[in-house]
Prior knowledge:
Elements: H1 4-20, E1 28-30, E2 36-38, H2 40-48, H3 52-62, E3 69-75, E4 79-84, H4 86-98, E5 112-116, H5 128-146, E6 150-154, H6 163-174, H7 188-201, H8 203-217, H9 221-245, H10 261-273, E7 277-280, E8 283-286, E9 301-304, H11 312-326, E10 331-334, H12 341-354, E11 362-365, E12 371-372, H13 389-407, H14 413-433, E13 441-442, H15 445-448, H16 456-473, H17 489-499, H18 501-511, H19 514-534, H20 542-565
Parallel strand pairs: 5-6, 5-10, 10-11, 12-13
Antiparallel strand pairs: 1-2, 2-4, 3-4, 7-8, 8-9
Helix pairs in contact: 1-3, 2-3, 4-17, 6-7, 6-8, 6-9, 7-8, 10-11, 11-12, 13-14, 16-19, 16-20, 17-19, 17-20, 18-19, 19-20
Bound molecules: arginine.
Amino acid sequence: MATLEALLHDRLAPAFEAVAGARVDPSLRRSQHADFQADAALALAKRLGRPPREIAADVLGSARLDGLVATAEVSGPGFINLTLADDALGPLLGAMSRDERLGVPRVEAPETVLVDYSAPNVAKEMHVGHLRSTVIGDAAVRVLDWLGHRVLRANHLGDWGTPFGMLIEHLADEGESGAAGELSLGDLNAFYQAARAKFDTDETFRERSRSRVVALQSGDPGTRHMWRLLVDESERHFLVLYDLLGVRLTDGDFRGESFYNDMLAPVVAELDRLGLLRVSEGAQVVYPAGFTGRGGEPLPLIVRKSDGGFGYPATDLAAIRFRTAELGATRLLYVVGLPQSQHFAMVFEVAREAGWLTPPARAEHVGFGSILGPDGKLFRSRAGDTVKLGALLDEAIARAAALIAEKSPDLDPETSAAVARDVGIGALKYADLSNDRTRDYVFDWDRMISFEGDTGPYLQYARARILSIFRRGGVTPPHDLAAIPVTAPPERALAIELLGFTGVVAEVGESLEFHRLAGYLFRLATVFTAFYERCPVLRAEGSVRESRLALCDLTARVLGRGLTLLGIGTPDRM
Ligand code: ARG
């Protein structure tokens, strides 16, 4: 189904072309004063050496707008204001309502998109940065999948490298079923910190840890066994959190750094063969074009350290090569915090120079800002250490449960527990996704877990309330209308908002700016509220009642689909 913008574009573009003597994008957008406005005349004025109002008038003189536009007029310095014909909206809404996909087509050219997200580190608790990556990555997976792409989920677990020397050595000391409980790993953070403390204070432990790294890398069976225990235990712990979060990540999506271990030496050898490798202070490095330090000196990407170890960058290079060559991915998305921007920019450039990332294949760093506490500093627990994700999710659900108990005391216990989970987790996710991804945002329980304002619970409630209209009226909304006629201004406003869904989803599939989808849903809910206050639905009669019911239904379906695309639960009653 075509978007309103596309329909208007097709009518106006030929007229602009006729006036300008060249192709011109009419530059359409939603308007405060009419339904839409086209701004292109202003930019053309200079080129044509004519006043913009005159150009706009000429365009309107030759544009064929019948059947779609009711009134078109030049306004201000040379905008074209367009008011759609009521008759044009009805059939478009009918088509949207009959379509299971609500008018959103599958992409014409599906791609293999790989989403690298979550990626916590073994034997460490996930922190709020991993929460952002998990929530944003999940939304990317859902949107791209729904648009018809082939989506590969990649959980690039931090399961390799020098810290494993001390972790394994500590496990060996404690014994696999040591005093601290099963595998001594009950509390991963405590286990990590205990290992760290020994490493920092005990010289012989440090020495043992170093030889442990060598044993791990050379594949010593006993060492590998203990490493596996650590990884398995961590994966179990992460899967519990994923389940609670309701994200699509599964057991099969873990492909940690260790997976690429055997590819690291060949990757560096190939860089050497390609003539890209240099030696700097004993390390093997690549100088990607365009990267310089403060003093203008070229910046190295270290692919092999002076001690012979490979690191994070080499692993990411091997992963790119694997993902494009073996998995056939053409769009690689890295949902990782913005502090790693330079790392990814350099890795992508080296991969391009090495020929592992050639068009149509490309990579994007889907970066995000930090979560801040009320003091504007990095979000921390009251004790001052990093916030544990498990505790955070539990608190979200508990707070939501209190709110639900107050608002809907009549729900049976089972429903109310399920709703509390949807609302608590949904509130967290919405607070994250409704903010511009690249900005920091302040974590605020009271603001996010509320039925008022721009929140997840508000949108969930807006949808549930519409479903309750149908329940109350004992009606099944019509899904087969040829047209949904609209006439009253609040109906029209709602209609135009609904018809904007297609464009928003398509745009978000490209930009991965999920706050645009969140903002759209919030606007839709607001416009719906205005409609519902002014236009009686169940009390209306005949065809008016029918089309208003259909508008309610479309709104509920768009809200439901939109929330689902963001990974937010949609309780039917609450
Ligand atoms: N484990 C890393 C961290 O916690 C994130 C990994 C992101 N993915 C990647 N391919 N480098 O910072």
